[in-house]
Amino acid sequence: MASVLQSLTGNLTNFNNINYKDQNIYNFDTISTLIIDQLKSLSWWKLLITLISILLVWDQISYQLNKGSIEGPTYKIWPIIGPFLDSLDPKFSGYKAKWDSGPLSCVSIFHKFVVIASDRDLSRKIFQSPKYVKPCVVDVAKKILRPENWVFLDGKEHVDYRKGLNGLFTKQALNNYVPAQEKVMDKYLSKFQEISKDGPIIFFHELREIMCGLSLRAFCGDYITEEQVKKIADDYYLVTAALELVNFPIIIPYTKTWYGQRTADMAMKTFAACSAKAKIRVANGGEPTCVLDAWIKAMYDSKAQFEANPGSKLGVRMFSDKEISEAIFTFLFASQDASSSLACWLFQIVSDRPDVAQKIREEQLNVRNGDPTIPLTGDLIDKMTYTNMVVKETLRYRPPVIMVPYVAKQSFPITENYNAPKGSMIIPSVYPSLHDPEAYENPDEFIPERWVEGSQANENKKNWLVFGTGPHVCLGQTYVMMTFTALIGKALLYNDLIHKITPLSEEIKVFATIFPQDDLILQFKPRDPLSV
Ligand code: HEM
């Protein structure tokens, strides 16, 4: 290294010693010639080492320039790559250390400069600044989700498209999907009893499967077959793996991204076929029972209104089966990991707290007037106030999405003193706001009662960043509250949940979202739903 520096500084010193004035060589051509001559005089390996040295110095300088006054390592400890190796196996403790280091902190990985906001108001500002930021997706996402997919729209185009989707996830629309979802719940809850009859087993994969089943029934109703649901549920983790933040941007056969793309293509083909069937059924007057029906009905209704009144504005245009299938895939993509995370924590938390489980059971029987066989409806779920608070507290205590990556479209003045450079990744964090002692007393304790109406937690609405905020706020948040309230209620009515607690149960594993490190070892033991 010493010889490298000598060679580098030696050549630069020679260059400086030239008396330009005397030789009257101010012009650019002459200087360029000089540099080329100097470089020519180097052997190839000296040249290579010189270039590498320049790159290393530039890497550190550009890091300093981007970092400015915010928290972060004083210099890049690992030149060029930065903490790349850590990012291959992200640790929750690493994120926590970053949040604790200051309201804004940074890291630099290869050429990517990353700014992390831990402060509530700065995080909100980022979420709500579509002028400066847009959601950041890994390069390969456009290939897997397809470049024309709506999730890549930005600004007004995104807002307009979103307007057409919001109606599919309102409470009123969701009520129509509940009966199909209840069938999925019943089927899987029986299966859970069966597969764990000999004692607690790992439930991580089982819960991912039921989540996929619930979503796909809500999205595609009975147009999708059991086998198709099973196939997509089994293979979906390949998409998650392909879309990890650190992944190779080119799709090479038999690599993670290739398997991910194949799975996505297979799922979209299935959804396109479901859409074609739904179009026929809805055209024949079928009432909506799933997202596909509701969307297609909105298209037909708009078309009919427009034809009756040609001067009017077309509300919802007709979408092709391909476009619909891509959008449905994004719903699955957005929901699958976060819902699976919530499912794991929710089942773990209620299993470990018999008092909470008991209160849920009492409420479940009460809202059904003592008849556990009463079918689920939106109105019934509305009455499950305590169960709903348990779901909400789980989302606060263990928020599935701990931070959301955005990218700066232009230099972004996040604070008076700090401008995040254009092209940097800017990450508003969710977790710290949800564990802020000023909003939530004893934030590291699980207290469902903190959500009673008028309470401090309920009043601190600005801290509730579980589903983001701003133009990209989660489309499925009402769906999440309804589905999980109904699911945990039914599960507890009909089962004793036995959790095998291990030293890793409360440790947090990061795999896109967060999970208990031991993957949740659980048993579903049948119980008489009438016994309280
Ligand atoms: C526990 C479950 C879930 C959590 C914690 C969650 C959380 C989030 C978060 C944090 C965002 C980013 C918001 C932002 O950038 O401001 C988001 C976006 C989104 N979520 Fe969810 N989500 C969940 C389930 C679902 C489900 C079930 C759906 C089903 C439709 C869904 C659909 C979406 C969509 C489509 C977006 C992108 C919206 C856009 O870009 O306009 N999510 N979600």
Automatic annotation (TrEMBL):
Pathway: Steroid metabolism; ergosterol biosynthesis; ergosterol from zymosterol: step 4/5
SUPFAM superfamilies linked to this entry: Cytochrome P450 (SSF48264)
Keywords recorded for this protein, A-Z: Heme, Iron, Metal-binding, Monooxygenase, Oxidoreductase
Entry cofactors: heme
Cited Gene3D superfamilies: Cytochrome P450
Keyword Signal belongs to the record: no
Coiled coil: none
PANTHER family xref list: C-22 STEROL DESATURASE ERG5, CYTOCHROME P450 26
Descriptive protein name: C-22 sterol desaturase ERG5
Organism: Wickerhamomyces mucosus
